[in-house]
Each structure stands twice: as C-alpha cells, then as structure tokens.
Design a protein that fits this description.
alpha+beta; SH3 type barrels; 3 helices
Length: 97
C-alpha cells in the first residue's frame, strides 16, 4: 500500500461529518488523498494521514482509520482494502459486544 501513495480515496459521510465538526470553516470535499499510512496494531488498525483541498498542509495533520474511506472500484488495491475493512469492522463489532 505504501508504494501506491498518494492513494486517491473518497471521504465517507461519517468521516465528512466528523471533519466538519473539527473544521467548520472548511468545505469538506468528497475526494481526498491518503499521503501516509501507519499500522497502529490491534488497537488502531491501519491509520491514514490525509490531504484535503482547502486545509493547509502545514496547519495540522488529519488522521483517520482506513475503514472511514471508500475507493474507486477500478483501483488495483480496492479488493484488498475492502477485504481488510470488512475484517476490521467485524472485529471491532465483536469487541463492542
């Protein structure tokens, strides 16, 4: 995945809502770029640093779990990422029970 960076992604509605709460003066676009990825192990899963238009890159870094993104179905990593997202969400729902 690191070799594919920056990775174009789509902001999900839940992530857009959280970003709007954090950055009320910025229009949150549907598209973004994942510019870095980090393995936060079992506790956090795959975390992504993202770039949004309208938010200065040097202002602060925005991190979100890879489960909060969608990807173009034509992207070569789409299936692999979707499989990870499904496993991660299932695991988190079991932990919440």
């Amino acid at each position: 995945m690191v070799a594919a960076l920056p990775l174009p992604a789509l902001v999900t509605p839940d992530l857009a809502e959280a970003l709007r709460a954090r950055e009320p003066d910025v229009s949150i676009p549907k598209n973004c770029e994942i510019v870095e990825v980090y393995d936060a192990r079992e506790e956090g899963g795959i975390m992504c640093a993202l770039r949004l238009q309208g938010i200065a890159e040097d202002a602060h870094v925005i991190f979100a779990s890879i489960t909060h993104f969608d990807f173009d179905h034509r992207h070569p990593l789409k299936r692999e990422i979707a499989a990870y997202q499904k496993r991660r969400i299932k695991k988190l729902s079991r932990l919440a029970e």
